[in-house]
Amino acid sequence: MERRDFLKIAGAASATTAAFGCSPKATEKLVPYLVPAEEIVPGIATWYATVSGDSPEGLGIQVKTREGRPILIQGNPEHPLSGGSVSALAQSELQGLYDPDRVRGPALRAPGGRFNALDWKHALELLVEQLAKARGGGIYFLSGHMTGTLDALVDGWLASFDSPNRAVYETFAYEPVLTANRIVFGQTAIPLYDLASARYLISFGADFLETWLAPTFLTRGFTAMHAFRDGGMGKFVAVEPR
């Protein structure tokens, strides 16, 4: 037996003994973190660059993890939208991950509206059975806005069941912005506004600091525009319903 293998076995045995002695009931299974991923060093934080999916902005973020568990979210300074900033929605993603009231597994709704927990094996068998019955137009897919490979994956999955029934729901519709941009600039695309370079800003009912388009990016631009520079500061006028 090699020295490394001996240390692994000895470490697992010691942990099992300690857990058994301190626990009020016998330990049934122990899965020690003996073989972590290559980039993970126990006791040292690992950072990952990714994109927040909790808001339509698609903010670039950096996630701090310890032993594979996310513990902090902050903006990615190299990302063109976030620029190091982060929204409250992106920060709240950790709450969704660790919320004690979150849905922790599959459940089946019983008569009366009550949900009964299911084990994964039974849940997957039931899902496969129901999907087979609904093949040929009986499957409907409702989601938020998706792009890229995930969007293509959903289309391909529905096509495999001969059910091209898909609905996309967005809380804030951007069709008027798309149409206006096509009329003015000839491009059917959502624009980004360089507020930092503006000296006079008029907003007609656009809640750009909270919900409209890319609030984190626009807030950074508005902060720069409204700051004192060159002997003055930009003027902001809001035209909104009251």
How is this fold's topology laid out?
Blueprint: H1 3-22, E1 46-51, E2 60-66, E3 69-75, H2 88-91, H3 93-98, E4 107-109, E5 115-117, H4 120-134, E6 140-143, H5 148-160, E7 165-168, H6 175-185, E8 200-204, H7 215-225, E9 235-239
Parallel strand pairs: 6-7, 8-9
Antiparallel strand pairs: 1-2, 2-3, 4-5
Question: What can you see in these coordinates?
Answer:
This protein is α/β, with parallel strands linked by helices and 242 residues long. 33% of the residues lie in helices and 18% in strands. The radius of gyration is 26 Å and the shape is extended.
The average pLDDT score comes to 83
Order of helices and strands: HEEEHHEEHEHEHEHE
For the largest beta-sheet, the strand count, sense and barrel status come to: 3 strands, antiparallel
Counting DSSP H or I runs of 4 or more residues, the number of helices is 7
